[in-house]
Amino acid sequence: MTHVITAILTKDGEILILKRGHRVSTYRGRWAGVSGYLEENETPLERAMKEIEEETGLKNNEIKLIREGEVMEFIDENNGRIWRVHPFLFEVKRKKIKIDWEHEEYRWIDVEDIDKYETVPGLKKVILTLLNL
User: Fold this and answer.
1) Which has the closest alpha carbon to 35: 3, 78, 74?
2) Which CATH architecture has domain 2-130?
3) 132/124 Cα distance (integer angstroms)
4) What is the model's pLDDT at position 6?
5) What is the mean pLDDT of the chain?
6) Is the whole model's pTM more than 0.90, yes or no?
7) What is the C-alpha to C-alpha distance for residues 101 and 130, in angstroms, rounded to an integer?
8) What pLDDT is recorded for position 71?
9) Which residues pair with 108 in a beta bridge?
10) How many CB atoms lie within 10 A of CB 46?
């Protein structure tokens, strides 16, 4: 079982999705929220905040935690992995971000449009749950 965090960032009624690049180990070319592996000796919230800064350039004073969701499990039979996802919802102060090497593109989208994108497993469920939809 692999523990990861997924942070969904929102601004002006839209959510941020990031297209995973070809240098990452999993789900190349798929769309995701801000995500990362949970490491020892840190809380999921600490990891979420680190990943947001690394992947978007947004500093802690530019983000506000709205909600921490219940932990969810997703089974990816293609990769033979069980993902234990620790989801978070943050509101951000600005939409202009600077993506890191892990991603090749980003978009701010309406939640209703998530089905138009090939995403990592469980992303839609994470988003809908965090937004209480």
Assistant:
1) 3
2) Alpha-Beta Complex (3.90)
3) 12
4) 97
5) 94
6) yes
7) 27
8) 96
9) 16
10) 13
